[in-house]
Design a protein that fits this description.
GO cellular component, one term: membrane
GO biological process, one term: proteolysis involved in protein catabolic process
Strand order of the largest sheet: 8-9-10-14-13-12-11
Protein name: TPR repeat-containing protein YfgC
Helix content: 25-40%
Number of domains: 3
GO molecular function, one term: metal ion binding
Domain LysM: 443-490
Distance between the termini: 20 Å
């Protein structure tokens, strides 16, 4: 959750953002355009209009040599698509996000997060991911997806993203579910399997024509699958459950398909591994302290000077708009809204923003309390979603006369207590504690004689799963060994 975002007025937490607006257009640009057709004027104008909002949703645009490098590789691979022969017609942006993600939108706008870049191990993989996303645009998948969303209703599509274990599938349930979908998720409604496979095939085609090793598409998909499994293991959840923050679920069959496509080309191109690793050396890995960091079950924001602890068995996802807390027993989210100094009305306004035209949500009462020296207020409402009853809790804290933060918690009826410990853990942190929060970064090292996976893993800035993290980060299988003289990535803590 970034400082810039929390400073905004967010009373309409669930209001439509750029992607929702795109999906709700009366006509969807590109929906009836033949695949491979050059970028149209209408697509270029649409992409330019929404580009600033997409960048803001993902923590902002990174600048400097690393961003320049990503832009150059992205533009070089994008021109292979036939959308345009001019590199400058493509805007390739490196985003300051800790989520593994990449996407492209009509008009020649291509995006990749720094977190996904740090997972890669060579330049060909970077080109492959960006080529895959450009492939979606070249095939007009986004336009077709948006047209389908328009036909099926936006809320119906969004409601299908979540499992619905807590909330029902009627409009109110979907409205509440929407609140736990950040801009990244609204933007990245999943493509169909056939569309993903088509984009993979186009990515392999672009890699081949650009002179890269086409096998890179398979290796990067393999790394994404391994990272997803690792994240699931660390968070104590089933790896087969789709991640809300991921656009690319990668079953083994898709990885093998990518390798098969590469083999059919009969081409062995370059990977530029050492060049790539030298360019990403020092890149931030994981959470940026300016947006807050997740350490185990604790969330700490050194800029906003706050911290809380998620309940046992729940995991967190940090985004620019909010911190989501997820588990089988319920869902919660920490965010903020406009505050005029009246905490009671603040809670009431948050409840009002959760309803829809058919059903307004009002708290049964708003009670004042104190949590670790912070003035707080809490309200609760029982809501019938059409399939079941849920308890909606808003727990708000005053941090100054003009700044308040609040949790929204949704649980099965009678089970709101699952988040009680979290609500009571919110606290203001000291300047000294805030100063101790430093970012993790990629450190590229050259293995020496005698180095092993175990010895290098011990240098990873984590207190658990060091070896697994090291292997996934470097694209190494369980039986792979460290080779002296070869470069590897480790994660360290460094300002």
């Amino acid at each position: 959750m970034s400082v810039k975002t929390t400073a905004r007025v967010k009373s309409a937490l669930f209001a439509g953002i750029a992607t929702l607006s795109l999906s709700a257009c009366a006509s969807v640009p590109g929906a009836n355009v033949a695949p491979g057709t050059p970028i149209t004027t209408e697509e270029a104008q649409l992409g330019a209009k929404y580009h600033p909002q997409f960048v803001a949703e993902f923590g902002g645009e990174m600048t400097g040599p690393q961003a320049t490098y990503v832009r150059q590789i992205g533009q070089n691979i994008a021109v292979q698509s036939g959308l345009s022969g001019a590199r400058n017609d493509f805007t390739v942006t490196l985003l300051n996000s800790s989520v593994n993600n990449a996407f492209a939108v009509p008009g020649g706008y291509v995006y990749v997060t720094r977190q996904l870049v740090t997972l890669m191990n060579n330049e060909a993989e970077l080109a492959g991911v960006l080529g895959h996303e450009v492939g979606h645009v070249a095939a007009r998948h986004s336009a077709k997806r948006q047209a389908a969303a328009q036909r099926n209703s936006v809320l119906g599509v969004l409601g299908a993203v979540l499992t619905g274990a807590v909330l029902g599938n009627n409009p109110l349930g979907q409205q509440l579910q929407q609140g736990f979908l950040q801009g990244s998720q609204l933007l990245t409604l999943r493509y169909s399997r056939s569309q993903e496979l088509e984009a993979d095939a186009l990515g392999v085609e672009y890699l081949t024509s650009a002179g890269y090793d086409p096998r890179a598409m398979g290796t990067v998909l393999q790394s994404l699958a391994a990272q997803n499994a690792l994240d699931a293991s660390l968070q104590g959840r089933d790896a087969t459950i789709p991640e809300w923050a991921s656009t690319h679920p990668d079953p083994a069959s898709r990885v093998q398909n990518a390798f098969s496509l590469a083999q059919r080309t009969g081409v062995t191109g370059v990977t530029n591994r050492d060049t790539f690793l030298s360019r990403i050396d020092g890149m931030i890995y994981g959470d940026d302290p300016e947006q807050g960091v997740i350490e185990g079950r604790a969330f700490i924001h050194p800029e906003l000077r706050l911290s809380f602890v998620a309940p046992e068995g729940f995991y967190m996802i940090n985004s620019t708009r909010a911190v989501s807390v997820n588990g089988n027993g319920g869902q919660a989210q920490l965010t903020t809204a406009a505050y005029n100094g009246n905490l009671d009305s603040y809670v009431t306004q948050v409840f009002a923003s959760l309803g829809n035209e058919q059903q307004q949500i009002r708290p049964q009462s708003v009670q004042r309390t104190s949590v670790n020296g912070l003035t707080a207020a809490v309200g609760q409402a029982r809501v019938n979603t059409g399939q079941n009853n849920v308890d909606v809790t808003v727990f708000a804290y005053e941090f100054s006369n003009s700044q308040a933060f609040h949790f929204i918690g949704i649980t099965p009826a009678g089970q709101s207590g699952v988040f009680s410990s979290m609500y009571q853990s919110m606290r203001r942190i000291s300047a000294a504690e805030a100063a101790q929060v430093i970012p993790r970064r990629i450190d590229v090292i050259t293995a020496r004689s005698g180095d092993t996976v175990q010895s290098l893993s011990r240098r990873m800035a984590y207190d658990r799963a060091q070896e697994t993290r090291f292997r996934v980060l470097n694209g190494m299988g369980s039986g792979d060994r460290v080779v002296a003289g070869q470069k590897y990535k480790i994660v360290i803590k460094s300002n």
